[in-house]
Amino acid sequence: NASSVCNEAVGTGRRSSAEVALDLWRVAAALRAMGTWPTVKGESPAKATCARMRKEVGLRDVEKDLLSPPDPESLFYELLHSMGLMNFGDKPLWIHREALERHLQQPPAAQAWHWVRAWLHMPLWQDGIGVVPDRDSDYAPARMEPSRLHHARELLAWALCGVAHASNCWLDLETFLRDLWRATQEASIDLYWGSFAWDPEFEMALKKEQYPAGEDRTLAYWLACEAVWAANAIMVTLATLGLVERGQTAGKNIRPCFRLTELGRVVFGAPEVEAAQKPGDARFLTVQPNLEVVAYLESADARQICTLSRFAAAASRAGGPVQTFALRRESLYGALESGMT
Asked: Strand locations in 144-284, DSSP E?
């Protein structure tokens, strides 16, 4: 039983697989343009690298959108790293371009499966916090303990597998996490961390001091800590990867809710849940007389949009399901130099 369902949501938002793949491609392109880049222990990007990626790619701003991941460029950096698409054995560092292109030519569900597997094993990416340094000590830990974080992500993925096999309804986030805690008490998520970018302020968590000693008080304190991490993992990280659609309940008592996207249901429900086949001749772009190309990412798949981005430059840094590219001399030359016919 996945969890109790809630009424239809309002203010919903989701990302297509093409949007995610385009972000991954843009971060990789920025790194390739650098040629080499400074890193710190754990092969994570140095501050100078993060600042340059943010300047050249500029995906989203967490100060304007609390449900945007802190430092989203570093999230995609860690994805590239965990999927083995970077070379750290020699200097200078470089992107395995051919391997990245092979990855982006796979069907969307196969790509998303690799994204989730990478997320499960990313120790330096802390959901709701961003990339943290790899320099822990027993006296001043700088990050969540990696094995506990991996355990937490596995439990969350297990719960989302149940969601994928249930009816595709909206789930109240707090109720879902309460059910997750009750189902996993013997090996529950135990992180003991704080200072997350987004705090959903769960109802039970706000009243945690009012509960007498017992199961409800323990659950309330868990909702004030570990559940906040889980909320950021679902509503921020996995939503950014196009696997979760988020929303909020209607009425006076507004509560965050979510459901899996079609892509999320396929990934977490495999092999029983199969991907729907898109029509092969679906059109997703319009070429305008000024040589600008308007691309509708909801109608495209990652293979199409990444092929377009190889020879057409992004005309703006705005995100969203509709993006504008431009056919320019330098972008066409760059595509030819990269081996495109």
From this structure: 171-172, 244-249, 256-260
